[in-house]
Amino acid sequence: MVNSDYVHGYSDRERSRLHDQAGTLEGLLHHDTVYPPGSRVLEAGCGVGAQTFILARNSPGAHIISIDISTDSIGRARTLSSSEGIDQVEFLAADIFNLPFPPDSFDHIFVCFVLEHLENPVESLTALKTRLKAGGTLTVIEGDHGSAFFHPPSEEASKAIRCLIDLQELSGGDAMIGRRLYPLLKSAGFDQVMVSPRMVYVDASMPQLVDGFIRKTFTAMVEGVGAQAISSGLVDVAAWQKGIRDLYSAAEPGGTFCYTFFKAVAKK
């Protein structure tokens, strides 16, 4: 089943974070995702469309159908798409496990930051595979919160990250799923699976990444689950507050931050 307890929530702040994240990581994650003119592409789990607009810009001749289980997110994505003049994307509210498309409907399928929130990622990949044409490709991008390293070191900051990992596990997801992409795709029956790590390293010589990734993407994501972490008894208020302060310290002069995403491409 789809995990309905989206650990990050649907606040305006989270929506802004998703768009900040997409813009910050566009070059790292999407420079090699280009679909040919005339191809039909399914984006599964588009959310508010943060990744959708990058796909559309990179592949202007492709027809993209973007789906999400959240009708509110689909509405927001559709509105933003219209305001941006993007006319090659069709937005639909749909469940990955109950797709409203016949088999072999798509040349390519794109999934980004979705599997980490699902209780049964292999089943979702298997369901998507049935809608992919023979020889078509599936692209999957996921993070791995266990790959976060930073300076200055802080036990409290590490514990804050661990709280997010634990909360996601409690809701049925896996915040460290990036390292599992190859076996997951092979278990779903995909061929020619290729996984590439996409590392983000940030120090004071990269001011755009200091702000865009350390502050607005990663630390904002961890900070967003503070109320849940405290109410669940995973951490006390003082330790949580220090952990978040220490994560932000990585964005100060002398601080550094490192994180790895994983991108997989496979064929049916």
What does this molecule look like?
With 268 residues, the protein is α/β, with parallel strands linked by helices. It has one domain: Vaccinia Virus protein VP39 (Rossmann fold, 3-Layer(aba) Sandwich). Strands 1, 2, 3, 4, 5, 6, 7 and 8 form an eight-stranded mixed beta sheet that branches. β4, α4 and β5 form a beta-alpha-beta unit. α1 packs across α7 and α5 packs across α9. The longest helix has 19 residues. It is globular and about 55 Å long.
Domain unit count: 1
Radius of gyration: 18 Å
| The CATH C-level class name | Alpha Beta
CATH homology superfamily name = Vaccinia Virus protein VP39
How would the global form be characterised?
globular
CATH architecture: 3-Layer(aba) Sandwich
Classify the fold: give the CATH topology.
Rossmann fold
Give me the secondary-structure category.
alpha/beta
Poorly predicted spans: none
Discrete helix count = 9
Major sheet, described briefly? 8 strands, mixed
